[in-house]
Description:
The protein is an alpha/beta fold. It has helices spanning 2-22, 28-33, 46-59, 72-80, 93-101, 153-165, 168-172, 181-190, 200-203, 236-246, 249-257, and strands at residues 35-42, 63-70, 87-89, 111-116, 118-123, 144-147, 175-178, 195-199, 209-214, 223-229, 261-262. The protein is elongated and about 60 Å long.
Amino acid sequence: xxxxxxxxILLTAVTGLSACSQAVPENAADKTARREITVLAAASLxxxxxxxxxxxxxxxxxxxxxxxxxxxxxxxxxxxEGAPADIFFSASTKQMDALKGEGMMNDxxxxxxxxxxxxxxxxxxSGKDITxxxxxxxxxxxxxxxxxxxxxxxxxxxxxVFTYLGTLEEVKKKANYGTDVRTVLSxxxxxxxxxxxxxxxxxYTTDKVKIAAEAPEGSCKKVIYPVGMVKNAPNAxxxxxxxxxxxxxxxxxxxxRYGFTEAVN
Length: 265
């Protein structure tokens, strides 16, 4: 009798284990089938890419688009250090050209996609009469927010503007440097600086700042946003399809609504 009971217990245990091994969570198959694209994108693209991400989810529900935003220089460094990435979307050709020269990009995939403008912004409730980039060098401004010129394209463009105006050294004495353009925008929104240099598209994202002036014509290089695939992209096939979407007229309509224009190649 004891042997019979033992056999029954063992049989029950084996049957239970078999049932457990066959049990599969309801959505496990869906998760296994999903694919992921990692896009390293300039901070100034944060808002528009959020909308494009939702649009693409409708087109390719089995593909997850994961954005990582930051200064173009910092993102360049991440790629150089081997961070997994499929697409790089820079706010300047400088960082893209550097990666291309290092053999880290798929050269044929690189496209100069968008153009932006450099502007001087002030807090919406500012009582100071700041109406031009020239004003930054006067006593109207005690502190200005700028992107760190070593890694933030907006900071590099700003230095070009003030060099053109002959006021860079004076402006540097008043500068507070941010790690990306959205940090500069935030400082200006809160009044922690009297003014800041950002992109037109950044100014469009908030009613807490107003544009005091556009950079004088010819004072800095054109603000071009190139996009391209990283050479060792983990998911190259899906990345290529997503980049084609970013370059489509459908996506360009969204970029225009956020203040970007199409780059003339």
